[in-house]
Amino acid sequence: xxxxENILVEQRGAVTLVTLNRPKALNALNSDVxxxxxxxxxxxxxxxxxxxMVLTGSGDKxxxxxxxxxxxxxxxxxxxxxxxxxxxxxxxxxxGTRKPWIAAVNGFALGGGCELAMMADFIxxxxxxxxxxxxxxxxxxxxxxxxxxxxxxxxxxxxMEMCLTGRMMDAEEAERAxxxxxxxxxxxxxxxxxxxxxxxxxxxxxxxxxxxEMVNAAFETTLEHGLAHERRLFQILTASEDKxxxxxxxxxxxxxxxxxx
Length: 261
Ligand code: CAA
Known about the structure:
The protein is of the alpha/beta class. About 45% of the residues lie in helices and about 15% in strands. The protein folds into 2 domains: about 5-200, 2-enoyl-CoA Hydratase, Chain A, domain 1 (Alpha-Beta Complex); about 205-250, Lyase 2-enoyl-coa Hydratase, Chain  A, domain 2 (Orthogonal Bundle). The strands form 2 sheets. The chain has a 6-stranded mixed β-sheet, sandwiched between helices. α6 (about 145-155) crosses α7 and α10 runs antiparallel to α11. The chain is globular and about 60 Å long. This is Enoyl-CoA hydratase.
């Protein structure tokens, strides 16, 4: 059972389900949410029984409607600077989590909500989902990675248009643009996301970490370095017990049994 106030955390078999739980504020992301998510993500990453995670929003309307404007309205520039505001999302949620996780976007994913979804390894979207970076309407700009991750996901033209106009993109457009892996009927989103997570959880866990690491490297480095990184990780995996089991199981026409090493 979850002991958090702003999120719900439950384990279903090998899958951790985390739900942003401030539905009255459309799951807006404040400092308490970040602190709790940071703890939940760290606990997931450290728990050997857990092999995939799904993050979604409570209520029918929103994944997260952005950073909490009511928290930010009170702050002055020096506070944002001295607290290095927003830096925790990158360090705790993105860098701190080596194991796979999926964002199941069930409604509005705006500003920091869109940025949080883009921190996931991939996004599954309800057909009611809406994505946007409307910070310009508040006199600011994305602060949790939107200008970088949205641009890498959908290209300069669409990212620039989204940021400059603040308009929302529906799920169909998001899939066409490559922002989301798949669109699912709204009522089936969580079931589909959990099933997808269970599929990932059934794979050799060390190979899952390495697959995630090498795909992410594509965003950080040159092609030549990325290819070398991929080969090294492939070679490391060939030394694992799960490689011996996986290839033996294929030859013997049976399912593999994974040790995670
Ligand atoms: N922060 C704080 N509270 C928020 C919020 C946010 N980002 N988004 C919605 N809420 C609150 C509303 O204030 C409202 O609370 P009250 O009932 O107490 O008034 C409640 O959630 C419901 O919202 P609405 O009545 O506005 O619902 P709606 O259906 O009419 O509109 C919406 C939905 C279009 C998403 C609208 O709420 C909206 O535009 N929200 C703000 C979106 C936004 O600008 N996000 C970017 C934030 S800045 C940011 O994220 C910076 C960054 O890069 C990290």
